[in-house]
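RETRY 2/3 - previous attempt timed out on the joint model. Re-submitting the same 216-residue input unchanged.
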Amino acid sequence: MPIKELRHWLPEDGMPKEEELYDLAELYKVFGDSTRVRILFLLLQRDMRVSEIAAALSMTQSAISHQLRVLKNANLVRSRREGKTAVYYLTDDHVRTILSCGMEHVTE
Amino acid sequence: MPIKELRHWLPEDGMPKEEELYDLAELYKVFGDSTRVRILFLLLQRDMRVSEIAAALSMTQSAISHQLRVLKNANLVRSRREGKTAVYYLTDDHVRTILSCGMEHVTE
DNA sequence: TTTTCATATGAGCAGTTGTTCATGTGTTTA
DNA sequence: TAAACACATGAACAACTGCTCATATGAAAA
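RETRY 2/3 succeeded.
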Protein backbone atom coordinates (compact mmCIF):
# COMPACT_ATOMS: atom_id res chain seq x y z
CA MET A 1 0.00 0.00 0.00
CA PRO A 2 1.48 3.38 -1.01
CA ILE A 3 2.20 6.08 1.54
CA LYS A 4 -0.73 8.45 1.93
CA GLU A 5 -0.45 12.13 1.07
CA LEU A 6 0.48 14.14 4.12
CA ARG A 7 -2.63 16.31 3.85
CA HIS A 8 -4.66 13.16 4.45
CA TRP A 9 -3.64 13.33 8.12
CA LEU A 10 -3.79 17.08 8.58
CA PRO A 11 -6.59 19.53 9.48
CA GLU A 12 -7.35 22.54 7.28
CA ASP A 13 -4.74 24.75 8.84
CA GLY A 14 -2.05 22.16 8.16
CA MET A 15 -0.90 21.74 11.76
CA PRO A 16 -1.38 18.36 13.47
CA LYS A 17 -2.82 18.10 16.97
CA GLU A 18 -0.45 18.72 19.86
CA GLU A 19 -0.54 15.07 20.88
CA GLU A 20 0.18 13.80 17.38
CA LEU A 21 3.19 16.10 17.11
CA TYR A 22 4.52 14.75 20.37
CA ASP A 23 3.90 11.11 19.42
CA LEU A 24 5.51 11.67 16.04
CA ALA A 25 8.67 13.06 17.61
CA GLU A 26 8.69 10.17 20.11
CA LEU A 27 8.46 7.68 17.26
CA TYR A 28 11.41 9.21 15.39
CA LYS A 29 13.37 9.36 18.62
CA VAL A 30 13.19 5.57 18.79
CA PHE A 31 14.66 5.31 15.28
CA GLY A 32 17.26 7.91 16.19
CA ASP A 33 19.80 5.52 17.67
CA SER A 34 22.08 3.36 15.55
CA THR A 35 21.90 0.38 17.90
CA ARG A 36 18.12 0.30 17.65
CA VAL A 37 18.22 0.78 13.88
CA ARG A 38 20.66 -2.13 13.63
CA ILE A 39 18.34 -4.32 15.67
CA LEU A 40 15.42 -3.42 13.42
CA PHE A 41 17.36 -4.29 10.27
CA LEU A 42 18.26 -7.66 11.79
CA LEU A 43 14.63 -8.39 12.69
CA LEU A 44 13.65 -7.35 9.19
CA GLN A 45 15.51 -10.42 7.96
CA ARG A 46 14.23 -12.91 10.52
CA ASP A 47 12.97 -13.34 14.08
CA MET A 48 15.87 -13.56 16.53
CA ARG A 49 16.72 -14.41 20.11
CA VAL A 50 18.27 -11.77 22.36
CA SER A 51 21.61 -13.57 22.48
CA GLU A 52 21.68 -13.83 18.68
CA ILE A 53 21.15 -10.10 18.32
CA ALA A 54 23.82 -9.38 20.91
CA ALA A 55 26.29 -11.61 19.08
CA ALA A 56 25.45 -10.16 15.67
CA LEU A 57 26.07 -6.63 16.93
CA SER A 58 28.98 -7.49 19.25
CA MET A 59 27.21 -5.97 22.22
CA THR A 60 26.31 -7.19 25.68
CA GLN A 61 23.05 -9.03 26.32
CA SER A 62 22.08 -6.36 28.81
CA ALA A 63 22.51 -3.48 26.38
CA ILE A 64 20.41 -5.27 23.77
CA SER A 65 17.75 -6.18 26.27
CA HIS A 66 17.42 -2.56 27.36
CA GLN A 67 17.04 -1.41 23.76
CA LEU A 68 14.54 -4.14 22.96
CA ARG A 69 12.42 -2.78 25.74
CA VAL A 70 12.47 0.67 24.16
CA LEU A 71 11.44 -0.85 20.83
CA LYS A 72 8.72 -2.86 22.56
CA ASN A 73 7.33 0.19 24.38
CA ALA A 74 7.11 1.93 21.01
CA ASN A 75 5.18 -1.10 19.75
CA LEU A 76 7.72 -1.67 16.99
CA VAL A 77 8.68 -5.17 18.13
CA ARG A 78 7.07 -7.96 20.16
CA SER A 79 8.38 -11.12 21.72
CA ARG A 80 7.32 -14.69 22.35
CA ARG A 81 8.71 -17.21 24.78
CA GLU A 82 10.29 -20.32 23.32
CA GLY A 83 11.53 -22.51 26.13
CA LYS A 84 14.31 -20.66 27.90
CA THR A 85 14.71 -18.08 25.22
CA ALA A 86 12.75 -15.02 24.10
CA VAL A 87 12.29 -14.51 20.38
CA TYR A 88 11.75 -10.97 19.13
CA TYR A 89 9.98 -10.02 15.92
CA LEU A 90 8.67 -6.91 14.18
CA THR A 91 5.13 -5.92 15.08
CA ASP A 92 4.13 -5.09 11.51
CA ASP A 93 5.33 -3.68 8.21
CA HIS A 94 5.40 -0.07 9.39
CA VAL A 95 9.02 -0.50 10.39
CA ARG A 96 9.94 -1.51 6.88
CA THR A 97 8.10 1.49 5.44
CA ILE A 98 9.66 3.99 7.81
CA LEU A 99 13.16 2.64 7.23
CA SER A 100 12.54 2.86 3.46
CA CYS A 101 11.60 6.52 3.74
CA GLY A 102 14.78 7.26 5.66
CA MET A 103 17.06 5.28 3.38
CA GLU A 104 15.70 7.16 0.39
CA HIS A 105 16.98 10.38 1.93
CA VAL A 106 20.28 8.98 3.19
CA THR A 107 21.39 7.21 0.02
CA GLU A 108 20.87 10.14 -2.32
CA MET B 1 7.03 9.07 -6.81
CA PRO B 2 6.25 6.08 -4.61
CA ILE B 3 8.61 4.95 -1.87
CA LYS B 4 11.04 2.34 -3.10
CA GLU B 5 11.07 -1.16 -1.67
CA LEU B 6 13.56 -1.41 1.16
CA ARG B 7 15.51 -4.18 -0.55
CA HIS B 8 16.28 -1.68 -3.29
CA TRP B 9 18.80 -0.06 -0.93
CA LEU B 10 20.15 -3.19 0.70
CA PRO B 11 22.93 -5.63 -0.20
CA GLU B 12 22.26 -9.38 -0.44
CA ASP B 13 22.73 -9.99 3.27
CA GLY B 14 20.10 -7.38 4.10
CA MET B 15 22.34 -5.21 6.29
CA PRO B 16 23.18 -1.65 5.17
CA LYS B 17 26.72 -0.33 5.32
CA GLU B 18 27.97 0.92 8.65
CA GLU B 19 27.98 4.52 7.45
CA GLU B 20 24.44 4.34 6.12
CA LEU B 21 23.19 2.94 9.41
CA TYR B 22 24.82 5.82 11.23
CA ASP B 23 23.48 8.45 8.84
CA LEU B 24 20.02 6.95 9.02
CA ALA B 25 19.98 7.17 12.81
CA GLU B 26 21.31 10.74 12.61
CA LEU B 27 18.49 11.67 10.25
CA TYR B 28 15.81 10.28 12.53
CA LYS B 29 17.43 11.98 15.49
CA VAL B 30 16.72 15.32 13.83
CA PHE B 31 13.05 14.42 13.49
CA GLY B 32 13.03 13.15 17.06
CA ASP B 33 12.32 16.48 18.71
CA SER B 34 8.87 18.03 18.82
CA THR B 35 10.14 21.59 18.38
CA ARG B 36 11.90 20.64 15.15
CA VAL B 37 8.89 18.67 13.92
CA ARG B 38 6.70 21.71 14.61
CA ILE B 39 9.05 23.91 12.62
CA LEU B 40 8.97 21.48 9.71
CA PHE B 41 5.17 21.39 9.67
CA LEU B 42 5.12 25.19 9.59
CA LEU B 43 7.58 25.32 6.70
CA LEU B 44 5.50 22.72 4.92
CA GLN B 45 2.79 25.35 4.65
CA ARG B 46 4.95 28.27 3.60
CA ASP B 47 8.40 29.83 3.83
CA MET B 48 8.82 31.75 7.08
CA ARG B 49 11.08 34.20 8.87
CA VAL B 50 12.74 33.21 12.13
CA SER B 51 10.64 35.62 14.15
CA GLU B 52 7.44 34.30 12.56
CA ILE B 53 8.31 30.75 13.55
CA ALA B 54 9.19 31.83 17.06
CA ALA B 55 5.86 33.65 17.41
CA ALA B 56 3.89 30.74 15.95
CA LEU B 57 5.43 28.32 18.44
CA SER B 58 5.58 30.76 21.38
CA MET B 59 9.30 30.24 21.79
CA THR B 60 12.31 32.53 21.93
CA GLN B 61 14.10 33.61 18.79
CA SER B 62 17.29 32.07 20.12
CA ALA B 63 15.76 28.64 20.68
CA ILE B 64 14.32 28.62 17.17
CA SER B 65 17.55 29.83 15.64
CA HIS B 66 19.47 27.03 17.32
CA GLN B 67 17.02 24.43 16.05
CA LEU B 68 17.04 25.87 12.54
CA ARG B 69 20.76 25.35 12.51
CA VAL B 70 20.27 21.67 13.34
CA LEU B 71 17.74 21.35 10.52
CA LYS B 72 20.09 23.18 8.19
CA ASN B 73 23.04 20.96 9.05
CA ALA B 74 20.84 17.96 8.24
CA ASN B 75 20.10 19.61 4.90
CA LEU B 76 16.37 19.56 5.62
CA VAL B 77 15.95 23.34 5.39
CA ARG B 78 17.77 26.23 3.73
CA SER B 79 17.59 29.97 4.11
CA ARG B 80 17.79 33.09 1.99
CA ARG B 81 18.43 36.65 3.05
CA GLU B 82 15.65 39.17 2.44
CA GLY B 83 16.78 42.55 3.67
CA LYS B 84 17.22 42.33 7.41
CA THR B 85 15.43 39.04 7.77
CA ALA B 86 16.27 35.43 6.98
CA VAL B 87 13.61 33.33 5.32
CA TYR B 88 13.72 29.58 5.86
CA TYR B 89 12.27 26.97 3.53
CA LEU B 90 12.30 23.21 3.06
CA THR B 91 15.15 21.85 0.95
CA ASP B 92 12.96 19.40 -0.96
CA ASP B 93 10.00 17.08 -0.71
CA HIS B 94 11.80 14.43 1.35
CA VAL B 95 10.61 16.10 4.51
CA ARG B 96 7.00 15.73 3.41
CA THR B 97 7.53 12.06 2.60
CA ILE B 98 9.24 11.25 5.87
CA LEU B 99 6.60 13.03 7.91
CA SER B 100 3.92 11.13 6.00
CA CYS B 101 5.52 7.81 6.88
CA GLY B 102 5.60 8.73 10.54
CA MET B 103 2.05 10.08 10.65
CA GLU B 104 0.80 6.85 9.14
CA HIS B 105 2.15 4.97 12.14
CA VAL B 106 1.11 7.54 14.75
CA THR B 107 -2.49 8.05 13.64
CA GLU B 108 -3.42 4.40 13.50
C1' DT C 1 28.62 56.92 11.07
C1' DT C 2 25.59 55.70 14.61
C1' DT C 3 21.45 53.52 15.87
C1' DT C 4 18.05 49.99 15.29
C1' DC C 5 16.19 45.74 13.88
C1' DA C 6 16.64 40.67 12.84
C1' DT C 7 19.24 36.83 13.35
C1' DA C 8 23.37 33.95 14.81
C1' DT C 9 26.23 32.07 18.22
C1' DG C 10 28.89 30.76 22.51
C1' DA C 11 28.70 29.44 27.41
C1' DG C 12 26.36 27.30 30.91
C1' DC C 13 22.99 24.30 33.02
C1' DA C 14 19.33 20.99 33.95
C1' DG C 15 17.30 17.09 32.02
C1' DT C 16 17.75 13.00 29.16
C1' DT C 17 20.04 8.88 27.08
C1' DG C 18 22.87 4.59 26.32
C1' DT C 19 25.90 1.70 28.36
C1' DT C 20 27.96 -1.19 32.16
C1' DC C 21 27.69 -3.83 36.29
C1' DA C 22 25.31 -6.42 39.58
C1' DT C 23 21.44 -8.89 40.50
C1' DG C 24 16.62 -10.61 39.93
C1' DT C 25 13.20 -13.62 37.47
C1' DG C 26 11.62 -17.50 34.89
C1' DT C 27 12.41 -21.97 32.51
C1' DT C 28 14.73 -26.26 31.69
C1' DT C 29 17.88 -29.94 33.04
C1' DA C 30 20.39 -32.87 36.34
C1' DT D 1 15.24 -29.60 44.71
C1' DA D 2 19.40 -27.56 43.02
C1' DA D 3 22.09 -25.95 39.35
C1' DA D 4 22.42 -23.90 34.89
C1' DC D 5 20.85 -21.11 31.27
C1' DA D 6 18.55 -17.02 29.02
C1' DC D 7 16.75 -12.86 29.67
C1' DA D 8 15.02 -8.63 32.41
C1' DT D 9 15.84 -4.87 35.35
C1' DG D 10 17.58 -1.24 38.66
C1' DA D 11 21.37 1.82 39.89
C1' DA D 12 24.99 4.61 38.50
C1' DC D 13 27.73 7.31 35.41
C1' DA D 14 29.50 9.73 31.41
C1' DA D 15 27.99 11.81 27.25
C1' DC D 16 24.66 14.38 24.87
C1' DT D 17 20.61 17.69 24.14
C1' DG D 18 17.64 21.74 24.23
C1' DC D 19 16.91 25.68 26.40
C1' DT D 20 18.22 30.44 28.46
C1' DC D 21 21.03 34.38 28.76
C1' DA D 22 24.34 37.42 27.08
C1' DT D 23 26.49 39.04 23.25
C1' DA D 24 28.15 39.15 18.38
C1' DT D 25 27.14 39.87 13.43
C1' DG D 26 24.95 41.90 9.43
C1' DA D 27 21.72 44.87 6.99
C1' DA D 28 18.78 48.94 6.80
C1' DA D 29 17.41 53.44 8.52
C1' DA D 30 18.42 57.82 10.74
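Chain B has one domain: 16-106. Closing ticket.
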